[in-house]
Write a structure and sequence with these properties.
412 residues; single chain; Rossmann fold; 22% strand
Length: 412
């Protein structure tokens, strides 16, 4: 029900009233994988509660975990996915075609990870710089990508301007929803962006969260779940606006906003979509009625399917030890009794145990020694890539389970 929530304060507008959308209970951090070096990494439990601000409509989690605890040592490496590598190349070309480079070729990426996107932008002719707080930046530096290891915000923006000048292009992919203080990040974009420059903000679309029950995308690193309406409101607080809008398949369905200063030329690029969101009541609590009940149905259906398969003597494994999958495993209570192992191509995760449920993470080759009858696709946003990899590279002839929006065995 709408109303005040204890210890809640909206990260965008400061309101203290919100509507509860889904309570996940007490869960470990999604990237608290355990192993010999940190055997008790997943013992701490934190509340995880998805709410929607009654004032500005921003969907967000109520809780705050210190960013340094979440991002300083980070196991996600973007370069391990062929889909992401291919996307980076196309993204860089797209920017090169859209941006007026007569004002400069300086491109800044926020949350640049291992430098995969910046490498593609450099190949497209840009003078690049990354900002990222995690230890993954060492890989970017090794590849010759200049990178500042820090959390981006207004202060870091001033540092960049003092040392390099203002950027003609700012790239912020899948990051704005990760920050506990989005106003600080957007203010940093305003400060670092040239008056005629463009920022490209890509973020998962909360419409897909609602419509496709992507509840597993909720974990402590993802603090906000944006719509075009809530991003428009956030940008306006800092003198920025959307001048063009498109949609991409990444991260289960994202929107890509081209952003400029308020007084820059160009039409309003979000007007029609804002009307649609109003019709769908996406930014109002009434539009989310029934969401929690649908998620509970999915949970019961997935557990029932896995239980029946195991009872029949089938061997079930999973693939894709993504953070989102850790949310699903813990929320559904899926343990090694139902899923023997979880494969992943990221060497940072192989040999560890999934947080909370303690399912072992193995290399793709090791996973095949289980001779699985079924593979549960944990990183479902890479479904096509995973199926192709299993068929063509591993020679797998068994079947796959897709968990969302309804758990089912797929005839691929």
């Amino acid at each position: 029900m709408p109303g005040p929530l204890p210890e809640y304060r909206c990260r965008v507008c400061g309101s203290g009233t919100a509507t509860l959308l889904l309570d996940y209970g007490m869960v470990p951090l999604a990237n608290a994988f355990t192993g010999p070096a940190h055997p008790d990494a997943d013992q701490a439990r934190y509340p995880l509660t998805l709410v929607q601000c009654d004032a500005c409509g921003m969907v967000q989690i109520k809780e705050i975990v210190p960013p340094a605890e979440l991002f300083t040592s980070y196991p996600w490496v973007s370069g391990t996915s062929s889909t992401l590598r291919e996307y980076a190349t196309g993204f860089a070309r797209r920017i090169a075609d859209r941006v007026d480079q007569s004002a400069g070729r300086f491109l800044l990426e926020i949350a640049s990870n291992d430098g995969s996107m910046l490498a593609a932008c450099r190949d497209a002719g840009f003078d690049v710089l990354g900002v990222d707080p995690s230890d993954v930046t060492a890989e970017a530096v090794r590849r010759g990508i200049p990178t500042i290891r820090a959390f981006f915000g207004a202060d870091v923006a001033e540092q960049v301007v003092a040392e390099r000048g203002r950027a003609n292009v700012v790239v912020a992919r899948n990051v704005i929803g990760h920050v506990a203080e989005p106003n600080d990040l957007v203010e940093g974009i305003r400060k670092v962006l040239l008056p005629t420059g463009r920022a490209f903000i890509e973020t998962p679309y909360a419409l897909r969260l609602r419509q496709e029950l992507q509840y597993d995308t909720v974990f402590h690193e993802h603090v906000c779940y944006l719509t075009i309406g809530t991003l428009t409101t956030l940008l306006a607080r800092h003198g920025l606006r959307i001048v063009d809008l498109s949609f991409v398949k990444m991260n289960g369905g994202s929107f890509l906003a081209e952003v400029a200063h308020q007084d820059a030329g160009g039409l309003d690029g979000a007007h029609g979509i804002l009307d649609l969101e109003e019709i769908l009541e996406l930014n109002r609590a009434r539009g989310w009625e029934g969401f929690a009940a649908q998620v509970d149905d999915q949970r019961r259906g997935l557990v029932r399917l896995l239980t029946e398969l195991r009872a029949s003597g089938a061997t079930v494994v999973a693939y894709g030890a993504a953070a989102k999958f850790m949310t699903m495993l813990n929320y559904c209570g899926i343990t090694p009794a139902l899923v023997e192992a979880c494969g992943d191509a990221n060497p940072r995760k192989e040999g560890l145990l999934c947080p909370g449920v303690r399912i072992p993470v193995e290399s793709p080759a090791a996973l095949m020694t289980h001779q699985p009858d079924y593979v549960l696709i944990g990183a479902w946003n890479f479904r096509d890539e995973i199926v192709r990899f299993f068929r063509e590279k591993l020679g797998y002839r068994g079947r796959f389970i897709v968990p969302l929006p309804v758990a089912q065995v797929v005839p691929t």
